[in-house]
Amino acid sequence: MRIRIVLSATLTALGLMFLIPAAAHAHGDTLKVVVTGQRAGHVTTDITWENDGDAIDENVAATVNAVSVDGTRTMGPWRLVRDPAAAPAGWTTAETLPPGSWKVTVEVGFPALGKGELEVGVPVVDPAPTTGAGTTGATTGGTPAVSAPTPDAASASASGSGSGSAAATSADASSPAPAPSGTQAASGADGAAVWWTTAGVAVTALAGAGVGLLLRRRRMRGACRTS
User: Fold this and answer.
1) Is 32 within 8 Å of 53 (Cβ atoms)?
2) Residue 122 has pLDDT above 50, yes or no
3) 68 vs 53: which has the higher pLDDT
4) Chain segment 170-204, per-residue pLDDT in tens
């Protein structure tokens, strides 16, 4: 009984020893490296197994080098990181290429060997227009250049100023006189009341004087008749 158990365990171990290498070598021992281009200056690459085209499950050890077409500039070596936008076979660089034409070479050493090359063009991106805050900051940071006015602009400005002055004068002439304020109205009412009071006193005085004269005449007439 014990012999059977030992034999079963031995056969199982041997089977696993043969199956694991077979599964490991199912992909092959070379990689297919295809440099697909660039995205915003980041080099993009697809890496798969050469035999079955499966994506790489583990991290890869690779170097990325770029040389300008004229040979005057070089970039790298950089490493590859997974590209979520092109999963599962996509890889990219964290660094970016400057604008220009570049011959990009990607060499992979782990988990297997592979190499890919491509000439990549990175376009020049126009800067985004500045916002109001950016314009204000630029004006504050430095003195803006003031262009000299042209003769046509100066004459137009002068004529515009003259027209504006004439329009303002016409508007002032045609506008009605301002209505008297409440204080002025109150002052006028007080003056009228004083005037009527003074006139009343004068009329009363004149009436009293007239009455006095009539009484005197009557008294003088009565005295003459008596005498």
Assistant:
1) yes
2) yes
3) 68
4) 444 455 554 445 555 455 556 666 777 777 777 77
